[in-house]
Amino acid sequence: MVVVSSNSAKSESSLSVSPVKLSDADDDIQQVDFVDIDSKKERKRRSTFQSSKSRIQAALAEGSKYNNKISSNNKRRKQSTGSSIAKRKNGSSEREGHNIDGDDDDDDDEISFVSRREFSFITQSSRVIDKSDSLQFVGSSKMKRRVLKFSTIRSPEPVSPEFEPVEELSEIESVWTKLHPLCFAIVIEHSSQESTSLYNKYQNNNVSQIPKMTTSTKSKVLIVGMGGVGTIAAYGLEFGGKAEVTAVVRSDYDHLTEKGFDIESVDYGSVKAFKPSHVEKSIEEAVKNHGPFEFAIFTMKNIPDVQPVEPLIDQCYRKGTAIVLLQNGLGIEKPVLKEFNEAIVISGVSMISSTLYHGVVSHVGTDSVAFGVCDNGKLPLAEQTSVCKKFIDIYSTGKNTVKFDENVKYTRWRKLIYNATINSTCALTDADLGRLELFGGIDSIVRPAMKEIMAIAKADGVDLPESIMEDMIRSDDGEWYAPSMLVDIRKGNYCEYKVIVGNALDVAKEKGVEAPVLTVLYNLLHVVQMRTMEQKGKFTLPAKRPFPKDNFKIEYK
Length: 557
What we know:
This protein is an alpha/beta fold. The protein is built from 18 helices and 22 strands.
């Protein structure tokens, strides 16, 4: 922990630091991030900091190494008491033989690292330190050439609202809480009674006193749909510690609230009785009790012929809420952007192999997901991208595979190679992928359908490699895996045939591409969907079969 202070008896441009005493409680620090600074070039390249789970883990590993030498480091720190380690740059870039812009290779020096950065902290006169200021930090020798990472650094990329520069002294403690998950900690000592009291509160440098990541420091995330995909998403977000998840669940509400969901996961192992932070039956209750939300994730089935997603979004959308469509289908963002034309819409394409049966999630394929921006044409693309990358940071756990999607259109066509063919055929034949292959369905139905998808995609400007067909067929080798559409049919639920097969056929018609196999699959799935609607009471048929001359039309309830 580094404690920066300003003394009213000193000049306005002078800052001092209190020596640091690290205790055994340092092991409790869970969110520490360092950035390697090995050269001037590297310092410049790192001027825009991005959160990285791998760097956090590396920093924690590094921390365990130097923890063994804490006592010797404490002696060094005591010797350095009273030395000035942070001061304004007054025409010189050097301090005690160290060049701020150059490499620092003197292992014998007490100063572990020196860095020039634009920190937004209050000094004695309540002004904000500008880019001409140079802050220099003291640390242990094991922290040589490591620079603490702060989200308050001004950079070309937008900074999230909760890390805006601090303008009021009353915000100091909240800033401490916000910064702590990202670095060791900084406390500003000011001549005012309020800030002095704050300093005294933590002056013993006991890490156990440092505020942990609280609800206020986490992103509020709404998840609508807790099936196989939604449950793993919710668990991952909670596991990462950067999100407070509110889940909207209807049919499984009682089971989730009373018993939780058991998870057997290839990524997270065996998890018993998982429950998100909050569970509600409706979006309205979720917003009322836990909103507004920074991110609203929709993972439920995308079934526009039964429940369009736009009315659901309308119930939770507020200015500043990013919409995440972690759903199957092609072109699913179009009706959303039409309805919410200034919203930041994030596409999520997941290759996960996860299903929910009777309160147990079977997760057999690593959560590999690509998130990308569906450009709304209203806001700067850089702003939309920044929000998307923040969500990626929140979603990433180190156990899943998450990446930024540079080409959303390509990614969605790529997944359609699987969903429009394997998913559809398994659902119609009531056979899992392994049995479908053994029974001959792969060669007779799936491969021809895949070639049609590739032809339609190419006409739409997306050139998919032929090797992708075999990749998809082999994706669940070793498992008798039932794709999501088959699971839906077996459970008597609706299936996503319109956004998966129907939207692809719409593009085929527009581009003049023949797709006879896909057309048959679509028409068969339509019949299955109508049967499910009848079973669920969406309409009632007469006791006797109508004659064609009766011109009977189905009336939906």
